[in-house]
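Example 3.2
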Amino acid sequence: MDDRSHTVRVQVLSSGETLYDTSKEIPPGEDEEQPVITPDDGLPTELRKYTVSATLDGGEDSISRTYPTKGGDCYSVTVRVGTDGRFRDMPSDSAFEGCSQ
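Structure, written as tokens:
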């Protein structure tokens, strides 16, 4: 993470329909608490194919991934901003503690 704050817009789409759309302020530095979005915030939980898209600071950068990939029906997705102030990656985890088994 670089030394300035960022606004990240997160959208979740399925079959061309936007199911979730929010913006979060990301504080500067790795020591600050980073925002987390959960199903309690309105994220969809129905079993289907989703595309997660994130846009940085009104369009400076964007990243998008489609889930499920192989290996699970429940995913934790992280959007990372690098030291250059651009998206670094969007890793996912299908075995995190928030997924019920």
